[in-house]
Design goal:
14-stranded mixed β-sheet; UPF0012_CS; 7-stranded mixed β-sheet; 507 residues; 27% helix; Acyl_CoA_acyltransferase; Bifunctional GNAT family N-acetyltransferase/carbon-nitrogen hydrolase family protein; 13 helices; C-N_Hydrolase_sf; hydrolase
Length: 507
């Protein structure tokens, strides 16, 4: 048996004879439904890249024909004649935003070789290369005539989707990640097999990016630097700031986009208040928070790195909170207050919880911040994921390995269930002269989802336990987009929103 050679290439005018024969065979139930030679030549002249042929041993046995349209001008209620400019293709707009599929077929004698899938893959690649929002097409439902007497089009669609009914066109579209936007009436009036109905199908290009400033832009590969901070005594705040600047400088030398400090990294300054009761001592420490935030903002600009400032105590309206700052390298900053103070923070210090869970926009995508104990509450991560979070930063402070493992294991779970990266940074060492801050245990890490594109362990990089050091790791945000769309499992997509949801209450 002779080997078959299969090729995907651009359609040419010389292919018309094979094209006509294949199309007439493919649409045997619609006599006379084939493209005329002049029409094919016009398409090739207008948009050669969009006309894709599949050949077997050099013979064209199928094709995918497309144009680019400004989809807003047509909306979802168009007909085939309208979208094609009544077959003139005057609607083709090279500056449009959507690749519109006007034809896909394969000769019946060559079906079963997955040729249509190759055509669709080539069309998707074209859409991605042209940076278009996605593909839209009207799809026939040729088996509908067998069920039209007992099922309306919506019921038919649902049964095909549930695999109770097989439809050669619609079943294939579902398997190629298309969704049905709506059902169209009189899309192809002569399509008796579909009873004149069609599905309006859409495929989203997950790599699409709107026009952006060529100087300031969101990066796809983001470099994260974690500071595993050694607790030690400092004579004053200047001594602490020297150590802070040393680490910012060190991470900046690696051209990192973020540097992350741990929770309560500034606790050594509590020595000044050690003669006070714990609640008064932590409020004494809070007087350093605003000056530290100002210095972090200066460092972020001068060292060109976004800084997650760990966390510090702050008094607002006479209430004590645990606060973290995002100091951007453009000079702006925002804050996040720890939602769940630990029992010891409440009993010893009278700490209150914050009331806002939100993502922060940065020049490296959308990020979230949760402080230590917060990451042990999965609802918070889910809320942030719903807001588009790509990287979750978790400054923490734990005194024992048990406490650390609670944070580490929960952070790993947040990365998997929310399909995001999680970076955790903690303190190590001890502070023998500071009440409630005696011992620290940490192993800082950058954690990933668990799928083929990521490390098998789900760990991008981690520190040596209980050793002062920095960890620098690159994370690829494009891999997250691919995971959302094509992952082995898709946690975010498969949430049963019909059964449960996570909501926040206004306070």
């Amino acid at each position: 048996m002779a080997e078959e050679t299969i090729d995907i290439r651009q359609l040419t005018a010389d292919d018309y004879r094979d094209l006509k024969e294949s199309m007439m065979s493919a649409y045997a139930d619609m006599p006379g439904s084939y493209w005329r030679e002049g029409t094919i030549q016009r398409l090739i002249q207008l948009f050669p890249d969009g006309q894709i042929a599949v050949t077997v041993n050099g013979k064209v046995v199928g094709c995918a024909l497309s144009i680019i349209v400004d989809y807003e001008k047509f909306g979802d209620d168009h007909t085939y004649e309208q979208i094609t400019g009544y077959y003139t293709f005057s609607t083709h707009n090279p500056k449009g935003d959507t690749l519109y599929g006007i034809e896909v077929f394969v000769h019946p004698d060559y079906r079963g070789k997955r040729l249509a899938r190759r055509l669709y893959d080539a069309r998707k690649a074209l859409c991605e290369n042209l940076n278009l929002e996605g593909i839209v097409a009207g799809g026939r439902i040729p088996n509908y005539e067998k069920y039209a007497d007992r099922l309306n089009p919506r019921q038919y669609l649902e049964k095909v989707q549930d695999k109770e009914i097989y439809d050669p066109t619609l079943t294939f579209q579902f398997s190629n990640d298309f969704i049905v936007k709506k059902i169209l009436r009189n899309y192809l009036p002569n399509d008796t097999s579909s009873k004149g109905f069609a599905t309006l199908l859409q495929w989203f290009n997950i790599y699409y990016e709107k026009d952006r400033d060529t100087i300031r832009y969101n990066k796809s590969t983001v470099r994260i630097g974690l500071v595993q901070w050694q607790m030690r005594t400092y004579g004053n705040m200047d001594g602490l700031l020297q150590q802070v600047e040393f680490f910012v400088d060190a991470v900046s030398d690696y051209e990192a986009d973020f540097v992350v400090f741990p929770e309560f990294f500034n606790a050594p300054l509590m020595i000044e208040f050690n003669q006070l009761d714990p609640a008064a001592a932590i409020r004494g420490l809070a007087k350093y928070t605003e000056p530290l935030r100002e210095k972090f903002s200066e460092f972020a600009v001068s060292y060109n790195v976004n800084i997650i400032t760990g966390s510090m105590p702050i008094v607002i309206d006479d209430l004590l909170y645990n606060i973290s700052y995002l100091c951007r390298r453009d000079g702006t900053w925002e804050s996040f207050r720890k939602i769940h103070p630990t029992p010891s923070e409440v009993y010893s210090w009278g700490m209150k919880g914050g009331n806002e869970v939100k993502v922060f926009d940065t020049d490296c995508g959308k990020i979230g911040i949760l402080i230590c104990y917060d990451v042990e509450f999965p609802e918070l991560g889910r809320i942030l994921a719903g807001q588009g979070m790509q990287i979750l930063f978790v400054p923490f402070l734990t005194d024992t390995q048990n406490g650390y493992n609670r944070v580490r294991f929960c952070a790993q779970a947040r990365a998997i269930e929310n399909e995001c990266y999680v970076a955790i940074a903690g303190c190590v060492g001890n502070l023998p002269r500071v009440n409630n801050m005696d011992l620290q245990y940490a192993q800082s890490a950058v954690l990933t989802p668990s799928d083929f594109a990521f490390p098998v362990t789900g760990v991008k990089a981690d520190a040596t336990p209980n050793t002062e050091m920095i960890v620098v790791a690159d994370v690829d945000l494009v891999l997250l987009k691919e995971l959302h769309a094509f992952g082995s499992v898709q946690n975010l997509k498969d949430i049963r929103k019909d059964l449960y949801e996570v909501i926040t209450r206004k306070k």
